[in-house]
Amino acid sequence: MPEFELPERQATDTQMLTGFWYRALPADRVHRNRLHKATLLEIPLVIGRDRLGQPFVLRDACPHRGMPLNTGQFDGENLECPYHGWQFDVHNGQCQLIPSLTSDQTLKVDRIYAGSYPCEERDAFIWVYVPDPGSQGAGFTKPSEVPDGAPQIEKFTAKYKLAYLQAEMPVSIDHGIIGLMDPAHGPFVHQAWWWRSRHSIHEKKKHFEPIPNGFRMSAHTPSSNSAPYKLLRLYADADAITTTIDFVLPNVRSETIRAGKYWFSSLTTVTPITRAHCRIDVVAAWNLFRWLPFGPELLKFVFAKFVEQDRRTMEMQAEGLKHNPHLMLIDDADRPAKWYFQLKAAHLEAKRTGAEMKHPMSGPVTLKWRS
Ligand code: FES
Ligand SMILES: [Fe+2]
To answer: Does the C-beta of 109 come closer than 6 Å to ligand 1?
Structure first.
C-alpha cells in the first residue's frame, strides 16, 4: 500500500540571526555631509561617511541618555550629540569630549563608547556586521572585532556592469526568504508574455547538494520554457548555459549564469528590518549585453518586474498572515523552505552548545516539482 504524505506544519519562528553581515543602505545614497537613518534587526542605526568618504555605522542612540545621534552635528570626524554635546569618533564610537566636565573631574571619557558596528562598502551597498547581542561596543565596552568580510558577487571578468534594486515587504524575514526560494509560485505570480505563462507549467527535476551553512542547486541548464534563456543561448552562441543557485544563512541567495565567455551573477538578500518587515535587495553584475545601450535598462526592467510581483504578492499574503493561520510545507516544492528552517535551527543549536553545526542534509538530493 502506498504511504500517504501529510504536509508539515510550518514553524512560526521569526527569530532574526545575529553574528552576520547585512546590507544596510545602497552606497550611492550615503553622502558625505549627511547622516542617514537605517534599521536592521530592530536596531536603529545612523550611517554616514567621514571626510575621506569612508562609511561608518553607529547605534542611533547616545550612550548618555539615548538621544538619537542622527540629529547631531557631524564635522566629518566626530559626531556631537545634540542633547549635552558629548562627542564621539564615528569609526569606533569612542567618546572624545564631555563638555560638562570641569578640569578637576577625572571621569575617563575615552572609556565610554557609542555603539559602533563594523561596516564595509561592497558591490553598491554599505554592509553592516550585526554582532550577537551584548557584544557590540556601547557604554563601557569596546566595539567587537571585525569578522570576515561581507559576501561578494562572483565576477568572472575585470569589466562588468552592476545594478541594484530594492523592495520592502510587510512580512517577516522567514516569509521573505521562503518566498524567494519557492519554485512553485513562478507560473502564477510571474506571468508575462516574454517570460512564461501558466500553461507552460511542466515537471522539473533539480539536484541539490549541501554547502557550508546552506545548499546549492547544482549547475544545470535553465528552464527551456523562458524566452530570455532561448535568446541568451542564441546570443552567446554557447552550447551550454549553466546556472548555479546557492542559498546560505542568514539570507543570501546567489545565482551565477555562464554562457561561453558571458556571465551574469546576482546576489539577493532578504534583510530583517523588524520582526514583521523585511527588505529584498537584488544586486546584479554581468558582462552580457555590455555593448548594447539598452542592456542594463532591459535587465533592470525584467528584475524590477519580478521583484514588484513578489512584493505585491507578499503584501497580500501579509493580510492573511495577520490572523496567524495554520501554515504548511509540502514536498518537494517546499523542501528548500524546510531546509532553510532546519539550517536556522541547526545554526542556533550549534551556537547554544558550542558544538559544530550539524547540517540538515546528509548528501545530494534530487527534488521534483511542476512549475
Ligand atoms: S544624551 Fe547625548 S550627550 Fe546627553
Ligand atoms: Fe518570485
So the answer is: no
Q: For 346, what's the count of Cα atoms within 13 Å in the CB-facing half-sphere? A: 17
- Averaged over 75-104, what is the pLDDT? 97
Closest residue CA from atom 4 of ligand 1: 84
Residue nearest to atom 1 of ligand 1 (CA): 65
SS3 (DSSP) at 220: strand
Which cell goes with 223?
A: 528552464
127-149 burial, b for 16+ CB within 10 Å, e for fewer? bbbbbeeeebbbeeeebbeeeee
Confirm or reject: Cβ of 84 under 6 Å from ligand 1: yes
Task: Determine the 3-state secondary structure of 140 from DSSP.
Answer: coil
ω into 332 cis (within 30 of 0): yes
Give residue 292's pLDDT: 60
Report the sign of the C-alpha dihedral through residues 252, 175, 304, 29, in that order: negative
Sheet holding 87-89, edge to edge: 73-74, 78-80, 87-89, 95-97
The predicted model gives 36-60 an average pLDDT of 97
As a whole number, the mean pLDDT across the chain is 88
Per-residue pLDDT band for 1 (boundaries 50, 70, 90) equals very low
The pTM (predicted TM-score) of the whole model is 0.90
What order of strands is seen across the sheet that includes strand 125-130? Answer: 20-26, 125-130, 119-122
At residue 208's C-alpha, the angle toward residues 206 and 214, to 5°, is: 140
